[in-house]
Amino acid sequence: MSDWTEVGDRVYVRRYAFYDQNIGVVLGDAGVLLVDTRISHRQAAEIAADLGAITPLPVRVVVNTHGHSDHCFGNHVLRPAEIWGHDRCVTMIQATGERQRTRAATALPNLAAELAEVVLDPPDCTFAETATVEIDPGGRSVELAYLGRGHTDNDIVVRVPDADVLFAGDLLENDATPFFGDAYPIDWPGTVERLVELATGTVVPGHGSVGDRGFAVRQMTEFRAVAELAKLVQDGRLDLDAAVLRTPYPADTALEPLTRALAQLRGELD
Questions:
Q1: CATH number of the domain at 1-146, out of 3.30.470.20, 3.60.15.10, 3.20.20.140, 3.90.950.20?
Q2: Cα–Cα distance, 153 to 20 (Å, whole number)
Q3: What per-residue confidence (pLDDT) applies to 2?
Q4: CB 191 within 8 A of CB 168
Q5: How many helices (H) does the chain have, and how many strands (E)?
Q6: Which residues of the chain have pLDDT under 70?
Q7: Which of 45, 100, 181, 207 has the most other CB atoms within 10 Å of its CB?
Q8: What span, in angstroms and rounded, lies between the C-alpha atoms of 235 and 149?
Q9: Does this model's pTM top 0.85?
Q10: Is 36:72 a contact under the CB 8 Å cutoff?
């Protein structure tokens, strides 16, 4: 029995329990494009095995939506596929990969030995603004776009135009408070506003339930609220504790978004 869900013509999503993460697949005539590779070589190998439920075709293209460990640490297992990502995705993996490995091993001690075996393998195909990637030479293609800083400084979206599906990576996360630890909260609302313009059909977040344009609009509104509250705090018109209570997030997860937004307003993230 397959746990893959077809969200568009030959476009599939599998929602893995670990980190409630969505992995995307776009089938071509002779190969597969895979969106993200999870946090380790073993988890990537699990994806490769699970693909057998929907296709015998090889993975020819991998796309990393950004450089966080849970989206790219499985890359090496998918070689010799070409791996695509933003220019700064490579920078992030090279500059912070070991730090991310250590942080993940500390947070997930049962995976520490597994994480120690991960071979960091950044994208070898990069771009700055937009790119069109062919799954099969002369065949089905997808569009990659960098829309601005948000969850990180290297988030990209993957658009499958002939199926009207948009993979948003962690620019959107459903069913939980998005992760703001490496975010640019003042930029994030404008970035998602540009994403909304592309979201005409199914929208797949990096984590949580698959949504649509309305879901993307709601998240844009939430990000805008965080940015506006942070500006009120910076201007002395609102106390930080009061701002926490006004965010769209549970109080126990609302401090990090505001703290990160205030850091950006102070110029500490540029």
A1: 3.60.15.10
A2: 23
A3: 59
A4: no
A5: 8, 12
A6: 1-2
A7: 100
A8: 23
A9: yes
A10: yes
Q: Which two tokens stand for residue 256?
A: 């990090």
Residues linked to residue 22 through DSSP beta bridges, in sequence order: 15
Element (DSSP H or E) covering residue 205:
strand 202-207
Share of the chain above pLDDT 70, in %: 99
Identify whether the C-beta of residue 210 lies closer than 8 Å to the C-beta of residue 203.
yes
pLDDT in tens, 85-119: 999 999 999 999 999 999 999 999 999 999 999 99
Query: What residues are paired with 32 via a beta bridge?
Result: 27, 59
Q: Is 146 helix (H, G, I), strand (E, B) or coil?
A: coil
Domains of the chain by residue range = 1-146, 170-270
Q: Is residue 202 within a helix (H) or strand (E), and if so which, with residue range?
A: strand 202-207
- For residue 23, give the H/E element and its range: strand 21-27
pLDDT at 270: 84
